[in-house]
Amino acid sequence: MPDDTGRRVRGDADGVRYASELTGHVRWLDGITGAALGVLAVASGIYTYLGVSSLLDDTGALSFFAAVSYSIAVSVGIFVFWSYLMRLLPAVRTMGARLGLMVSMLIGSLAIIAMSSWLNAAALAGSAAVEQHLAKTVQEYQASLERAHQVAVSAQGLERDVARVRQSFEDLSQQEADGNLSGLAGRGAVFRVLRQKSDELAALEAQIASQAPLVDGAFAEGNAILSRMRALTVEPGPVEPRSVQFSEEAVRLAGIITQLRQLSVAPLVARAAQDLAASVVLPELDGRTGAARGDQQSTISSVLEVLGQRADTLRSAAEAVIAMPPAADTTYTPISAADAVILYAGNFAPSWAGAIAIDLLPAVLVLILAVTQAAIRSGRDGVRVEDTLTLSELRGAMIAMREIEGIQPPAEPVRPQGDAPAVERRGAELKPVSETGKTR
User: Fold this and answer.
1) Residue 189 near residue 300, CB atoms below 8 Å
2) Which of 240, 243, 273, 411: disulfide with 314, CB 3.0–4.6 Å?
3) Where is this region: Disordered (predicted)?
4) Do residues 330 and 226 touch, judged by C-beta distance below 8 A?
5) Band of residue 252 on the pLDDT scale cut at 50, 70, 90
6) Residue 428 pLDDT exceeds 50
């Protein structure tokens, strides 16, 4: 039993020394905690001011004071919020109080992120985020330009199909001229039908060929605009004036893409193929005999059948080009630095981490203080108050006790029984005076 008591006493003494050591550290840290918290709050306010300034369109005095007021409010709010938690959360002891303050800290942290951290991120990476937006827009415009050019070039490829059909009708007309088709040599009714369609196809072929330089020129101009847009994306200097120039180039490039869409000849070829078989002007049969005219009519019917087949083939080729997915509609939308940081948050994770850390770093200090205070209380649990007094505290207590004892009033003496001279009631230091004036 004495051994258990001794071990308990030694354990209590170790706990008291442990708690006293931690208390000394906490007192020393209290001297720099307020200053550090103030520096963090001011730094967050500065970056918040930069972020707010990027959102305000006006650059006048009113906008300046508005941004300054907002940043000051953020700094004060951050300082007060974390000061409250640094004092209260480590001091509470019940689980309910701790949970309540932890929930309050979570809500306050979300509010700080909403009113400050995203603006800090805008100040840290706003220009880079806007440049990222410009670069992505360039990629979208490039894809749209290339797609429009691909569709236009595919439509130009229909020229070969038209040329093949035209050549077939020219060959047939030549055979008819030699008398190898209907059996009647010369330039009769069958020959005129074949030449009519070959001339129509030749005109369509020439129209398609005339579009080729326009397509090539539009594509070259679009690439030149893209080059200027890429240069604006990586050019040094403020991003706002570059965004204005970028917007102007984007409008020009959108016009080029629209022009390439209109230069596609696939719809024209599809309509021409439909009219190829539908609009046939049949000439008068010029055979001298009924048999000859019958041969001409039979040959013309065969020609019209072949004409319909060629028209279906040409129309199918044109519809295949028309069915190709068109170029996507791309429009450049100017964006602010704050919106760009949110839109491309995944590309600027380090900047977001720094912006949030500068606001929520005091939360780590709050948790450190809470753990330390819990350790101090555990070291003092079960120890009487008088056992926790240090030598300086004990000395101070003894001095206080002496002062208290020194100012207590003297006890009132007990009055003796009977009539006693007044001088005896006042004290022995006074002696009665005789009638002669001398002391006895």
Assistant:
1) yes
2) 273
3) 406-440
4) no
5) very high
6) no
Q: What is the pLDDT of residues 365-423, one digit of tens each?
A: 888 888 888 877 776 665 555 555 566 666 777 787 787 877 655 555 555 554 444 44
User: How far, CA to CA in Å, does 385 sit from each of 6, 70, 251, 374, 376?
Assistant: 19, 49, 81, 18, 14
DSSP letter assigned to residue 432: P
Q: Are the C-beta atoms of residues 332 and 246 closer than 8 Å to each other?
A: yes
Element (H, E) at 169: helix 158-177
Burial of 256 (0-12, 13-18, 19+ CB in 10 A): buried
Which of these, 118, 212, 227, 217, lies nearest to 160 by C-alpha position?
Answer: 212
**Mean of the pLDDT values across residues 139-149?**
91
Backbone φ and ψ for 413, nearest 5 degrees, come out as -65, 155
pLDDT band for position 225 (cuts 50, 70, 90): very high
Question: CA 392 to CA 400: how far, in whole Å?
Answer: 12
Cβ pair 44, 70 in contact under 8 A: no
How many C-beta atoms lie closer than 10 Å to residue 287's C-beta? 18
- Look up residue 25 and give its amino acid: H
pLDDT at 92: 85
Q: Is the per-residue pLDDT at 294 higher than 80?
A: no
The sign of the torsion formed by the CA atoms of 269, 270, 274, 275 equals negative
Domain ranges of the chain: 2-126+347-392, 128-336
Residue-wise burial string across 87-116, b where 16 or more C-beta atoms lie within 10 A, e elsewhere? eebbeeeeeeeeeebeeebeebbeebbebb
Q: Angle formed by the axes of helices 158-177 and 118-156, to 10°?
A: 10
Of 313, 307, 300, 297, give the one whose Cα is nearest residue 276: 307
Looking up tokens 């005789």, which residue turns up? 434
- Options 1.10.357, 3.40.50, 2.40.30, 1.20.1260; CATH for 128-336 is 1.20.1260
Give SS3 for 439.
strand
* Residues in Cβ contact with 59 at an 8 Å cutoff, skipping those fewer than 6 apart: none
Q: Which of 334, 348, 176, 319 is nearest to 243 (CA)?
A: 334
Dihedral of the alpha carbons of 68, 70, 75, 78, in degrees to the nearest 10: 180
The dihedral through the CA atoms of 339, 341, 345, 347 has a sign that is positive
